[in-house]
Give the backbone structure.
Amino acid sequence: MSVSDHDLIQAWKQVLTLSKLEPGQIVTVLTSASTHPQTMSTAIIAAASLGATVNRLDVLPVNGEKALSRDSLAYLGTTPLTGNRAAIAALKESDLVLDLMTLLFSPEQHDILKSGTKILLAVEPPEVLVRMLPTLADRARVMAASAKLGKAKEMHVTSPAGTNVRFSLGQFPAISEYGFVDEPGRWDHWPSGFALTWANEGQAEGTIVLEKGDIVLPMKSYIQERIHFTIEKGFVTKIEGGVDAEILREYMASYNDPDAYAMSHIGWGLQPRAKWSTLGLYDREATIGMDARAYEGNFLFSFGPNNEAGGSRTTACHIDIPARNCTIKLDGEEVVRGGKVLDGGPVQQAAE
Ligand SMILES: [Fe+2]
C-alpha cells in the first residue's frame, strides 16, 4: 500500500525525536540515484519542522559495473564518498546524517561517526518504514539482548535440520540495532531490531544447515533445497546442496576474494513487526530485505566483512542469512529455542 506524505512525515518526526534531534542542529540528507523521492522529501520536511537546519547532499552512484545486482548491499567497500573530501567534510560537520543511499561497511562511514556525527540509514520503501517504526520498547528489548551477548564467551546454534555450530566470543563488541540514533557517533538502520556480534577471529567451527524456506540475501529467495555450510577456523569451506547452493557458490566466487568466505556478524532477530513471509510479496529490487534480517527469533548469520566491528576485513561481498527454527545458546543458556525468543516477548514498558 502507498503511504501518505502526512504519515511518513509523522513517522520521520518520531524517529528524529527518538534520535534526540534538537532545534538548531544540522541534518544532512545523503541521497543518490536510488533514493526514494517520498522518503527524501518527507525527511526534509520533518527535520525542518523540528527546527533543524537541513541540507541535501546528492552524490553520484558507483560500482554499477561491478555489482551483480541493484541491491545497495551487494557491493561494499567503495562508495560515492570514497576520496570525496568535500562530501565527507560536510557530513562530519553535520549533527545527524540521514543516509538514504547506503554507506554501510565503508571506511568513510567510520570516519564520519568518529567525529560524533550520528548516521541513520533508511532505504526500505515507505510502507516498510511506517510498519516498522521504532519505539523505545524496541530499544529496551534489543539492548537487553545485546547486553547478554556482550558478556557471553560462546554462542552455540543448533537446528532440527542439522545445524551445530559454535562461535567463540569476546574479541568484538555486541551491537544493538533498534532503528534510531540517540547517542553521538551512533549508527543505526530504520527499520531493524536485532542484536549481533562477531566471532573471535578464526574461531567459528561446525555445520550450518539451511532448511527449505530459509532466506538467502542478497538473492532474496526462499531456498527450495537444504544448503549445508561447513565452517572451519572462521571461514565457510564448503557450500553443498542443490541449485540454491550452486547459485550462492557462483555468486561468492565472482568476488574473487578469500575474505568473502569469512564469518561476519552473528545474532538473532527481535522485531515482532518484521515478518519472514513478506519477501514473497515483493519484487526483489523493491526492498533490501530488512523484514528477513529482523524477524523475531531468526538466527541471522553472515559472511564477509568485519570492519563494522573494528576488524580488518573489508571485502565487497556480504551475504546475510536469517535461518528459522534454530536454538541459540549463550554459554549454555538458551536465548532462542526453536525460533522463539525466550525473553518474555516485546518489552511493554520503555526502559527510559
Ligand atoms: Fe549483514
Summary: The chain has two domains: 5-130, 134-341. Residues 19 and 180 are 6 Å apart (CA to CA).
